[in-house]
Amino acid sequence: MTVHETDVLIVGAGPTGLALGIDLARRGVDALVVERGEGLARGSRGKGLQPRTMEVFEDLGVLDAMLAAGGEYPVGTVWQDGQQTGEHRMFDPAEDGEEGSAFTVPWMVPQWRTQEILFARLEELGGKVAFGREVVGLEQDETGVSARFATGPAVRARYTVAADGGRSAVRRALGIGMTGETVDPDPILVADVRITGLSRDHWHVFPPRGESSGFVAICPLAGTEDFQLVAQFPDGTDLDPSLEGIRKVTADRTHLRPEDVTEVRWSSGFRPRAALADRFRAGRVFLAGDAAHVHSPAGGQGLNTSVQDAYNLGWKLGSVLRGGAPESLLDTYEEERRPIAAHVLGLSTAIHRDEARRGAATRQLGLGYRESSLTVETQAAATGVRAGDRAPDGTIDRVRLFDAFRGPHWTLLGADATDLGQGVRTVRGPAPEPYGTGLFLVRPDGYVGWAGDSPAGLTAYLTRLGLRR
Questions:
Q1: Most exposed: 102, 323, 368, 456, by fewest CB within 10 Å?
Q2: Beta strands in 150-260 (DSSP E)
């Protein structure tokens, strides 16, 4: 039987799998992305890109395309009996340059367009996606993972990553459970529609009309002619995602006429829930994205947390497969990402229940890994950025830090920074605010791995990670 061999098999061509494929491709790692569908999934789904994800996309080389494809969220307006009764902003404002980032608000890009951009970048780097490949069997041993498919040749990979969504076939094959809860018993219908008679300058919100109804929200999708319609229904309702069904709920709950909904381009129903996989790794198989954590869409955290899973795992797989790092480095993926996922799940649920606001926490710039075993802090009295924190943007001697960080390397910055050789870029000069004084070794994913007042201990840290022999 023909068997395709690769370094990494990525199951699922959503944002998580595509972002991981890009990161591995630029590191020279042979990876194959497989997708059971015949093409990229349609639908707006996760449409909000948080500031931290925009920073990740800048490093992966897709920022300009994301900026061109989307736009800022419009101001919300509430309707009652065909009249606009007020405006409100969906997100708490941020200060310019908040937390050392060029991005201060979520950027709206429909998920189908995000996937198209990531797919194009993956192909540009020589990466591959095999469509129509449904996983039906998975076995692993000490040297790799063998995957069988409903059609097509088997694949043998040194590692496999499950990025195949909340109903992950790979997770089920591994026997890994998910622990969680129903966030809201009321089902929700979401659809990408064409509508006449509504301004594209606002996110239109229609509160429930009585106890037997639910809200409707209609948001213009930036960069398209579509609107995303979200409608809540009482528990036990059979959702009708057809054109007639969506016309009916629109006419029943808004001032619009049925015929104002001219087209349904995609629709789906779901019941909001929150769940976390009991493990993120089983041997040579890793879980990422919705396969590892399922969120309420409130707050726009799911897609963003998923992409950042890929960003965390990508450099570690690359380091082990191409950089001489010990395999134990891969243990830190679950160590670092599972607590983050648990925290963000709690935030998403709180926002859904109106117990928290969409503010600084949802922008994800403050997340980090201070408690990670990869984090070494040797500053006697840290006055700014600490090891484990996200490395903020800024300049040193007219060098923009995010330009210096871009790429698969590590970066050492500070007044006493010295040349550490291959795999580490040096940016010499006093670190800008809010770093404080000292030396900072920034990981390939933009977090400070090591910080100290002097270079003492730095060589030992690099040796431990395989950057020195």
A1: 456
A2: 154-162, 178-182, 188-195, 202-206, 216-220, 227-232
Closest-CA residue to 98 (of 130, 51, 131): 51
Per-residue model confidence as pLDDT tens digits over 128-168: 999 999 999 999 999 999 999 999 999 999 999 999 999 99
| 3-state class (DSSP) for residue 44 | coil
Convert the pLDDT of each residue in 228-261 to its tens digit: 999 999 999 999 999 999 999 999 999 999 999 9
Is 168 in contact with 309 (CB distance < 8 Å)? no
Q: So what's the architecture of 3-70+109-179+274-363 in CATH?
A: 3-Layer(bba) Sandwich (3.50)
pLDDT at residue 98, rounded to an integer: 65
Instruction: Give dist(CA 309, CA 297) in Å, integer.
Output: 17
Question: So what's the architecture of 72-103+185-271 in CATH?
Answer: 2-Layer Sandwich (3.30)
Q: Tokens 């301004």 correspond to what residue?
A: 199
**Please, which residues have CB within 8 angstroms of residue 62's CB and are 6 or more apart in sequence?**
22, 117, 118, 121
Q: Report domain extents, the chain.
A: 3-70+109-179+274-363, 72-103+185-271, 376-464
Give 95's contacts (C-beta < 8 A, 6+ positions apart). 104
